[in-house]
Amino acid sequence: MKVLSIIAEYNPFHYGHLYHLNEAKKSVNPDITVCILASNFLQRGEPSIVDKWSRTKMALHAGIDLVIELPVAFSCRSAFYYATGAVTSLVKSGVVTHLSFGTEANNLLQLQKIAQVINNEDALYKSVLHDFLGAGFSYPKARILTLEKVLDLKNDDLRELDNPNNILALAYLQVLDILKNDITPVGILRKGDYHSLDPNHGFASASAIRKLIKNNDPNWKNHVPSFTREILENDFKDGKGPLFLDNLEQNIIAIIRRTNPLELQKIIEINEGLENRIYQSAQKHSSIKELLTELKTKRYTYTKIQRSLTHIYLNYEKSLDLKEPKYLRILGFNSKGQSLLKHMKSSSELPLINRFSNAFKIVDSTGKKILDLEARASDLYSLALPNPNQRYGKQDYYNSPIKYLI
Description:
The two termini are 22 Å apart. The protein has 3 domains: 3-104 and 183-243 and 322-404, Rossmann fold (3-Layer(aba) Sandwich); 119-162; 245-320, no CATH class. The longest helix has 18 residues, at 365-382. 45% of the residues are buried. By secondary structure, it is α/β, with parallel strands linked by helices. 51% of the residues lie in helices and 10% in strands. The protein is built from 20 helices and 8 strands. Strands 1, 2, 3, 4, 5, 6, 7 and 8 form an 8-stranded mixed β-sheet that branches.
């Protein structure tokens, strides 16, 4: 049985996602397709425009058979940890045969070679990387410069390596290499620029569509399938979205202002004095935009800072030490997905969770930490929704998997 998997945020699901899904199915001809879907806070450190349940509906409408959650413990992390959570979930499900992802160039073999070099981290690689980091470059940029030097690659070979799609593709390949799993990677060439809205240059990106929505530009409706449009319009009408990082800014800044820098240092991914800079900046500024502008440096990208601010909001501490998933939470399925779930009951190395209220009884102590963080993230996400009547807590406990059984 061929089981195709896709790791996604679908924030929101658009024509580019549909193209990728259809091309992946053409390439693999799978019996069943599974999606690992990011939770309510995403890899760039932003809240999703609508919650994970609405995005699950989009995935099922698009032709995904089974949707599994990527907990916020991994969905709001840098690329490698994001990939670790997602790929480990796929591997431990015991059923996945293929993993498809978007790339910016037809360079899968090149990316696999680079992934192996990074994983091996010989003395030369470590030394060169250390030098570039010491020169003040961000980690992604320092890694590109290191690979260029160590592998004697030309700029053309690495020109797209700092693109979000290739960064994630590389991370997926790293984790597959580390786990020594035989899941087959399937790269699908992306159409269009990452931030483009020009239909002549491919599909509009999710970030560009979100920008249109944020600016109240109805043109966003032209860039998504009808089912996405309907789901978003219903959520917006009910005040369940749209949600942006700006909606959290007063809460985030309030938390920073009342927190000692030594406490901020306990938050994951905050180190090297960043806690002091964040604390001092929050005393002077009252908007996320101002914080990001002041805190961004050659070493710290906007995305890195955004994640740090969101981690503060979620109180995601280093001491949690969450390195890999400990359960597979089901967000939704159709008839095919339901049949696969029956098979996974015996094949999966991780417990399957359908109801959040029962989850704490069947996971280990680390799993309980992941669940606690997930519940807190959902509660804080809902607190910022436009409609006060939608801001109730315990939403993870009230929502069950979405079933599209025909």
